[in-house]
Automatic annotation (TrEMBL):
Cofactor: pyridoxal 5'-phosphate
Gene3D superfamilies per record: Aspartate Aminotransferase, domain 1, Type I PLP-dependent aspartate aminotransferase-like (Major domain)
Keywords: Aminotransferase, Pyridoxal phosphate, Transferase
Organism, as annotated: Streptomyces racemochromogenes
Record-linked InterPro entries: Aminotransferase_I/II_large, Class-I_PLP-dep_aminotransf, PyrdxlP-dep_Trfase, PyrdxlP-dep_Trfase_major, PyrdxlP-dep_Trfase_small
Organism phylogeny: Bacteria, Bacillati, Actinomycetota, Actinomycetes, Kitasatosporales
Name by which UniProt lists this protein: PLP-dependent aminotransferase family protein
Start and end residues of each Aminotransferase class I/classII large domain: 46-402
SUPFAM superfamilies assigned to the protein according to its UniProt record, in alphabetical order: PLP-dependent transferases (SSF53383)
Amino acid sequence: MGHGPQDVHGGVDPHLGRYAARTAGMTASEIRALFAVASRPEVVSLAGGMPNLAALPLRDIAAQTARIIAEDGLAALQYASAQGLPELREQICEVMALEGVRGHPDDVVVTVGSQMGLDLVARLFCDPGDVVLAEGPSYVGALGSFATYQAQVVHVAMDEHGLVPDRLRAALRQARNAGRRVKMLYTIPNFHNPSGVTLAVGRRAEILEICRAYGVLVVEDNPYGLLGFDGRTYPALHSLDPENVVYLGSFSKTFAPGLRVGWVLAPRAVREKLVLAAESATLCPPTLNQMVVSRHLATQDWRGQIDAFRETYRERRDAMLRALEDHLPPGCTWTEPDGGFYVWVRVPEGVDTRAMLPRAVDARVAYASGTGFYTNGLGGRRMRLSYCYPPPGRIREGVRRLAAVLEAEPAL
Ligand code: PMP
């Protein structure tokens, strides 16, 4: 092929010398790599975090989308504001108000999913070598964004009430003593991915105070906050300290992830820079998709829709917890989420969830090994089980298969 000693298929990349240094931090996440295997129909996948969209009113969405194009097609198919459509930004403020956030539409930036928000925040704040604090474990997609901008993630331990304030203080002190620059705390306070844990209300102000005292920005990632099984919401960190919190929201879990509509609410000066960064990334978020979301919020019973999602996920959470109780071997423990999509399981000593995964897939069940949720090699005795997508019968079958795999491990 003339590129060098071997062609691309031979394993040597002919562009090797050309990539920017930052690409060294880009690695395929274990979880993404799993997707292909886990989506085979015979495999019960407890691995992914795909929402269950069966309850969506597809006919209504189709009719609304057709109307948008028929009545407002020239605008819907045109470029629009880099910051996002003004009417949608107003509606986003109403959605956030459900969790106590008092945001102004001028301070909202619409993004292509909150994943883009994570990328923009990392782009704005992270220089190579900067430290980002994040719960241990933390969301894979966020870890990827921080790695892309060559920041170093330092994990802060959580317990059953979420991030531990004393551990946060210790991490900040240690980083300061080591002369490191800590840029932000990235946190998922509600129905955490992957642990399923919610940050205790009593810890919220304390964590914000610690970050203020150390001059560290707080990035609050809250895609699951409206999916509490008893309908309860918790005060957003943003509502307690709006000037030092950048808030990330998303319609992926409460409406439709394929539309890729999320947002960032930021203090004004940060928002101005975010819009510039967003503009250089995408010019503007997709106009039609924003209109579909906006019309959905304006014409549908979207709160009733979220109630229906919550009910489905509560049922599936119950099915999973019952199955874990019934089938997992002694020595396993797990979290009991009050909302969201995930249970975090600890397996007995000697079991390595990453090494076990191919055996689980052979037994037609998939999970996400805990190691993908840490940047420091921890997580080998943990796994994330998602109950959001498979119906209860499949969840039970998946857990039964998983239990059999665990029992066959040499360590047990
Ligand atoms: N943050 C967290 C904690 C998530 O779990 C997810 C999706 N799995 C995202 C952000 C990204 O969501 P989206 O880009 O679809 O809005």
